[in-house]
C-alpha cells in the first residue's frame, strides 16, 4: 500500500502577481504528489506567500506567519517579504525557510526537506492549466516580472529586480491552455504592461503559424484571437498605448485600461520618479474616448506624498474632475521601509493626509456615481461570477474582478458562472449596477 501523501497548507497574501506565484507553487506541489489541505491542523507543513509592499502588508504577512507557526509549527515563508528575511528571522527565528518572490525552486526544496515527496504516478495527473486560485472562468496572465522604473515610494524593483518579459509565444500558449480549460476572461498583469518586451528587444516569435513581436500591441492581437475577454492592467500612458485603441473599438479586447497615475502635479510626479508625461495625459484621455467612447479608465493615486502642498493637492482634484475616470482607488502616502521617498523633506501630517484622502474620495465618488447613472437603460454583456436563489452576480466590461463594481441580476437564478449574458441596467448605486436579463437571452457563450 502506498503511504498517504504529505499534506501542505497554503496561505496566499498580496497582489494578483503574488497570486500567480502561489498558483505556480501549488501546481508544482500537486505534480509532486503533495495534497493541499484547507486547515492548519490537517497540514504537515504550511507555506506562507507574503507581501511586502506597504507597511500594513508587512504586518499582515508577519501576523500570518505567526498564526501558522502557532497553529501548525512547520512554516516555509516565500514571496515579497522574503526579501527582508532579517525582519522575519528576528520575529520568528523558527521558520523553516525564507525565499523571495518567484523563487519556486527554493520553496520546493524547503518543502522537500520538511516533507520528502511520496511520488505516485497515478496522482500526477494535473490539468494543463495548473492550479488556479481564481474562479475557473477568469485567470491572471502574468506577462513579465520586475520593473525598470525606480519610483521613489516603491521597493518592488529592489525585491523583484529589473523587467524580465516572458516571450510572447509562451504567454499566448499559456493563454490558449487557460481558454481550453474554461477561462472566459484573461487579466493581463505585470508591473508595467506598456514596457512588455523591451528587455527582449521585442523579439519576434511564432504562434499558430503567425509571427508576433513580444510587445503589448502584438500580444493583444494574439489574445484577441482566443475569443474571450482580455483586460489590461498596470498600463502606463506611453504614446504606444494608443495602438490598442483600434482593438478595443473593434471589440477584440475589452475597452478597459487600468493606469496607475498616482498624481497629477508634475512636481510631485517628478519627486515620485514616475514614468510617463502627465502634461499630455488629459489630451490622450480625450483622444482615447473619441476613439472608444465606452472605454473604462481605472486608476490609483497617492495623496499626502512628502512635500505635497495645498495647491498641488488642488491640482490633483482638478485633474480628477477633468479626467472623469470611471474607477479610482486612493491611498494616503505611507512610508515603505527602504524606499527613497522616505528621505524627502516636508512630510505631510497624518491628519492632513487623512483629510485630503477624504476630500479626494468625495470628489471621485460623485464622478463614479454619475458615470454609473449614465448606464441606466443600457443593454450590457456581462460575465456571470456566481448565481443562487437571490439572483446572479456578474461583471461588465467595466468591472475587473476584486477591484471594481458588480452587476446584480435579480432574475439571474438560472445562470451559471462563466456564462456571458445580456442584461438591461435598471438602477445604479455608488459602485454597482442592478439589472435584469435582456429578453430574450441574446448571447450565451
Ligand atoms: S512602475 Fe514604479 S511603482 Fe510600479 S513597480 Fe515599477 S517602480 Fe514600483
Describe, in plain words, how this protein is organized in 3D.
- GO terms for molecular function: protein methylthiotransferase activity.
- Keywords: 4Fe-4S, Cytoplasm, Iron, Iron-sulfur, Metal-binding, Ribonucleoprotein, Ribosomal protein, S-adenosyl-L-methionine, Transferase.
- By secondary structure, this protein is an alpha/beta fold.
- The protein is built from 12 helices and 20 strands.
- It has helices spanning 16-31, 55-71, 85-91, 104-114, 156-160, 168-180, 216-224, 245-249, 266-272, 281-291, 310-323, 350-373, and strands spanning 7-12, 35-37, 45-50, 75-79, 97-98, 138-142, 144-145, 164-165, 185-189, 204-207, 210-213, 229-232, 256-258, 296-303, 327-332, 379-388, 391-396, 407-409, 420-428, 433-437.
- A 5-stranded parallel beta sheet has the order 2-1-3-4-5, sandwiched between helices.
- Strand 10 (204-207) and strand 11 (210-213) form a beta hairpin.
- Helix 6 (168-180) runs parallel beside helix 7 (216-224) and helix 11 (310-323) packs parallel to helix 12 (350-373).
- The chain binds iron/sulfur cluster.
- Iron/sulfur cluster binds next to helix 5.
Bound molecules: iron/sulfur cluster
Helix content: 25-40%
Q: What's the Cα radius of gyration? A: 23 Å
The total count of strands amounts to 20
Question: Class by helix and strand content?
Answer: alpha/beta
Strand order of the largest sheet: 2-1-3-4-5
Cα end-to-end separation: 46 Å
- Estimated share of beta-strand residues: 15-25%
Q: Indicate the overall shape.
A: globular
Amino acid at each position: 500500500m502506498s503511504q498517504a501523501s504529505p499534506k501542505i497548507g497554503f496561505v496566499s497574501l498580496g497582489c494578483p502577481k503574488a497570486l500567480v506565484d502561489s498558483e505556480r507553487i501549488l501546481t508544482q506541489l500537486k505534480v509532486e504528489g503533495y495534497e493541499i489541505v484547507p486547515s492548519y491542523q490537517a497540514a504537515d507543513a504550511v507555506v506562507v506567500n507574503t507581501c511586502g509592499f506597504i507597511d500594513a502588508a508587512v504586518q499582515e504577512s508577519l501576523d500570518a506567519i505567526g498564526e501558522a507557526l502557532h497553529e501548525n509549527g512547520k512554516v516555509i515563508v516565500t514571496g515579497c517579504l522574503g526579501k527582508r528575511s532579517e525582519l522575519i528571522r528576528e520575529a520568528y527565528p523558527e521558520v523553516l525557510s525564507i525565499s523571495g518572490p518567484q523563487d519556486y525552486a527554493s520553496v520546493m526544496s524547503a518543502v522537500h526537506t520538511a516533507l520528502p515527496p511520496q511520488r505516485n504516478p497515478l496522482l500526477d495527473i494535473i490539468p494543463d492549466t495548473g492550479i488556479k486560485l481564481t474562479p475557473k472562468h477568469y485567470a491572471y496572465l502574468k506577462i513579465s516580472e520586475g520593473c525598470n522604473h525606480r519610483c521613489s515610494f516603491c521597493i518592488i524593483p529592489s525585491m523583484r529586480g529589473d523587467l524580465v518579459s516572458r516571450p510572447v509565444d509562451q504567454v499566448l500558449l499559456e493563454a490558449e491552455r487557460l481558454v481550453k480549460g474554461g477561462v472566459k476572461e484573461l487579466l493581463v498583469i505585470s508591473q508595467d504592461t506598456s514596457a512588455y518586451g523591451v528587455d527582449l528587444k521585442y523579439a519576434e516569435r511564432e504562434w499558430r503559424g503567425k509571427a508576433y513581436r513580444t510587445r503589448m500591441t502584438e500580444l493583444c492581437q494574439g489574445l484577441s484571437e482566443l475569443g474571450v475577454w482580455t483586460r489590461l492592467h498596470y498600463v502606463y500612458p506611453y504614446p504606444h498605448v494608443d495602438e490598442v485603441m483600434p482593438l478595443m473599438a473593434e471589440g477584440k479586447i475589452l475597452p478597459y485600461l487600468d493606469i496607475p497615475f498616482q498624481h497629477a502635479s508634475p512636481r510631485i510626479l517628478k519627486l515620485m520618479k514616475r514614468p510617463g508625461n502627465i502634461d499630455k495625459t488629459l489630451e490622450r484621455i480625450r483622444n482615447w474616448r473619441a476613439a472608444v467612447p465606452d472605454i473604462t479608465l481605472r486608476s490609483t493615486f497617492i495623496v499626502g506624498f512628502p512635500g505635497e502642498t495645498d495647491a498641488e493637492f488642488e491640482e490633483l482634484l482638478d485633474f480628477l474632475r477633468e479626467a472623469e475616470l470611471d474607477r479610482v482607488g486612493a491611498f494616503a502616502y505611507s512610508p515603505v521601509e527602504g524606499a527613497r521617498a522616505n528621505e524627502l523633506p516636508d512630510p505631510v501630517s497624518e491628519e492632513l493626509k487623512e483629510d485630503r484622502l477624504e476630500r479626494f474620495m468625495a470628489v471621485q465618488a460623485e464622478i463614479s456615481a454619475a458615470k454609473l447613472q449614465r448606464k441606466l437603460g443600457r443593454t450590457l454583456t456581462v460575465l456571470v461570477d456566481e448565481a443562487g436563489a437571490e439572483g446572479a452576480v456578474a461583471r461588465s466590461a467595466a468591472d475587473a474582478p476584486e477591484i471594481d463594481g458588480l452587476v446584480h441580476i435579480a432574475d439571474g437564478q438560472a445562470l451559471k458562472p462563466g456564462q456571458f449574458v445580456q442584461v438591461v441596467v435598471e438602477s445604479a448605486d455608488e459602485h454597482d449596477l442592478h439589472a435584469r436579463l435582456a429578453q430574450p437571452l441574446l448571447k450565451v457563450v
